[in-house]
Amino acid sequence: MSIDRRDFFKVISAGAITAATAGSIFAREKKKLAPDAVGILYDATLCIGCKLCEVGCKEYNEMPPEQSLKVDSLNVPTIWDNADDLSAKTLNKIKLYRNGDASVKDREIDGYSFIKRACMHCVDPDCVSACPVTALHKDEVNGIVTYNPKACIGCRYCQVACPFNIPKFEWDDPFPKIVKCQMCDHIQESGGMPGCCYYCPTGASLYGRVDNLMNEAHKRIELAEGSKYNYQVKSMDSGETAQHTVPKYVNYVYGEKETGGTQYMILSAVPFHDLGLPNLPDKSAAGKSETLQHTIYKGLIAPGALLAGLLVAAYRGSKAHNESEEGRS
Amino acid sequence: MSENKPLGGKIITKPFIILAILAGIAVFLLIKRFIFGLGSVTNLSDGYPWGIWIAYDVVIGTAIGCGGYVMAILVYIFNRGKYHPLVRSALLTSVFGYTTAGFSIFIDVGRYWQIYNIFLPSHVNLNSIMFEVAFCIATYILVLWIEFFPTFLEKFNKTKVLLILNKTLFIFIAIGVLLPTMHQSTLGSLMIIAGNKLSPLWQTGWLPVLFLISAILMGYAMVIFESLYSSTVLKIPFEMPALGKIGKLVAWVAVVYIILRFSDLILNGKLGLLFTDSWSNSIMFVVENLLFFVPIILLFSKKYRRSTKSLFFIAIALVLAGAIYRFNAYLVGFNPGIGWHYWPSASEILITIGIIAIEIMAYLVFIKRLPVLPIIKHSTKS
Amino acid sequence: MSNQQIKRVFAENVAQNFDAYGFSRRDFMKFCTAITVTMGLPFSMSKMIAKTIEDPVRPPVIWLHFQECTGCTESLLRATHPKVETLVLDLISLDYSETLNVAAGYQVEKALHDSMEKNKGKYILVVEGSIPVKDDGIYCKIAGKTALESVKEVGANCAAAIAIGSCASWGGVQSTFSNPTGATPLHKILTDKPIVNIPGCPPSPYNFLSTVLYYLTLGKLPELDSKGRPKFGYGRLIHEHCERRPHFDAGRFALQFGDDGHRQGYCLYKLGCKGPETYANCPSILFGDVGSGAWPVGTGHPCFGCTEEGVGFTKHVHEQAEVKTFTPGSIYPDIHSEKKGGITVAGAAVTAGAVVVGAKLVSDVSKKLGENDSKDSSNQA
After folding, report:
1. Chain C interface mutation, best of B45, B52, B349, highest count of C Cβ atoms under 10 Å
2. pTM of the model as a whole
3. CATH code where residue C168 lies
4. Where in C104-244 does DSSP place strands (E)?
């Protein structure tokens, strides 16, 4: 007694189609912002490229100095004071966008702008969903995504998953860890603020509650270009302000919707794509992959059913085989 | 009476020594990896954290090792008893394929001394697809060794234990069909979380289905390839025309695969990307699919199914097709951004080659000393 | 002694009579070297400059004062080496200067006209103060003529002009905000003559002196920037050579006058220092020849951008400056940087080797399979 070949294919196809199309039925609910979510608002128009945030970050996280990998004709690093990009020793990075003669700041054509890259602390982090051992964890209260080396097995799936390519790995260490910005969680625990925000002299890196920062970001893009505005420095409630002329912002807050929203938000006068920020859909990839996985494996119903069928078939099959074997011997 | 017997013969032959040298090089490089870190022997980077050790050793390696899985389906689930003699050698390929894949995972992960965390309930993340893959593969390796155990029992004439095991074997067979169904499809789902980093030519919600079907395809193709290869090299009779019939089955599996693959591409309007995506993506996409199409066409002709030589090349083509599909989904189509590049380093490739060499060496020892290979009484025409 | 007589004596005795002036030849050479360095010229040129000072040929200079506070002249006269400055003033034949003229009234006006006539096309015009143009320029009248008329008349036949001070360079304090008198800088009035602007309130005397010496020595004006300012003096932002810059770079700021940071000499950026957007060389050459720290920031007060139009007297003293330059090294990574990991020779070689070996194994087997097939088919035939 054997399963008809046609039936077999029918079952497989049905299962496949169900899996592929039933996404909406078992769709995993959209992740919400943590109740006391804290974050950083980076305003590229305020950034003067002083790199104090990099220095502060190194200090607060006890990271060693690093040099650029690119060397000139004399084998001297072209950037002698810091790395080219985020790495296992560099948790945040100021980069420069330049176009043409780069003569005017915050202008797209023949202009330049700075951008600070670090972990976006997503509301629906792909890295947290990916990690098989919960080494990357999103705090339920403040939403900071932290890393626990004691749990990590170094599989680097988080690196594959992150749409911003943030987690870095200690490739040259026999006992490597994953390294990324953790919003100075250890400093925040004792009431402080992230090093980048503390050190920033112009208020480009601003610390605060995500809801307040989001309101502030929207307020700024609504301001009239050329008017004067008192920008907060360090954090939303530090009391310290600096007056600047309001620039022509891109009418968008990056991080409001990207991959489900991020707790690190960016304002700029130059299109975000020019600053190296990827164009991402509102739904995170983690949402898609978890939905698919749950659809197939929810309650282990499908595998259970398949196993039951297989047990029956295998039993009959091996019984038949054993009987024929015994018959022969 | 068993229908399998050891091949016998010398273990230390010239090919064996060459393999041993390759294995030795790999061992040396692995010591370097463990002392100096992954960066000292690989070209892996933060943009390309996964390289050939994952894409080939694990993903392709386990798909190649699906021989046991697909033969179990054919023989035990569809009850095609006449293929039974082929099961053990297929199973052996699977045992080694999966064990070396497990070993490759061990040398690839950075914090290998904590790898058991993946089984601890306190750490496990049930949402993680990686967790399911790791758990499934680990369990399956165990199941494979249990399924293979009767071979040892036969060799050492433990007939009583053998009888008991044979009675309960159906449980392991059933699990041994369930688990690869799960993890071979999940190996495809793994790349969904890469989102836009994987070119839409490969990124799709159908990845698990496509990976599963192509794994089944590769399993059967490997059975054909491996059987023809061993018969030639070890000078034993060919298992024809059984292999030809498997060839026909393979053709149908490939047809299902192609239909699903291209339905997804066409219905979601992605075929046009062939002309706008990077040239390396476009070329590799064409190569990948040609390797499916051409064998399908050839397999539907009896002439090609009867000839061992053409079956051999068709089998290789199909294994390559599945392999290149996986390479494309994991490496070629994966683009982390401007400035990132990956091609395996010489050491990285040599380690992989060395691991394959060890696998082949172990395979040779096993078939020469254990009752694995089938006793072909006569070739039947049917 | 009349001016003429002093000049004759000087011409004859300059080399021998340094003692009469109260300094040694060594001091004199040191001065020439310092001036050379200030202008960014090679050391060897100091000898040329020394020669020029000793040379009896002296071009006439006419110095006009308009809407000004006379601070620029006072700055010039305020030095710890008055004898050398006097020397230089003797070096140029200062035919007219309302501050320094001994005579007054019709007498001095006649001296002015005589000089203009005699030295037509050869004299240098120095203007201190801005020129009001509103209401036909009645807001400044000297000797019955408006500043506007005077400057046009005197400027018509000058060889070159120097606008000393911010007022003459861009309008100064009286030109900011509502500018009730229509205060205008020299270069907007005298549009057809080569003009050097030496802004500052007041500018360092050495910027002026160096320009004059440069002209006398080399017969041409020093290299000027887009605003007509000598590059040796105004080519860099104060931020770029401020001694407190390391504090800016390390994030150490004084937040209030008298706080700990202020006492320790921290950067004054947060107190509104306009150094990051002001071009001048104050931190390098300082003022008054009294040693280090003799400039506003050095004394603990933020720079207010006196040389810079749009900053000085325009931006609030404590308004945060716009930083016009990149910091340290002006080197930044690009948005996308190249990383390692691509194909290497070794990698390509091993790959090729593996492919070749694989192909060989396959072909060996396929040959045997081919033989087997033909055997089979011949068996069946």
Report:
1. B349
2. 0.79
3. 3.40.50.700
4. 124-128, 131-132, 141-142, 145-146, 160-164, 183-184, 195-198
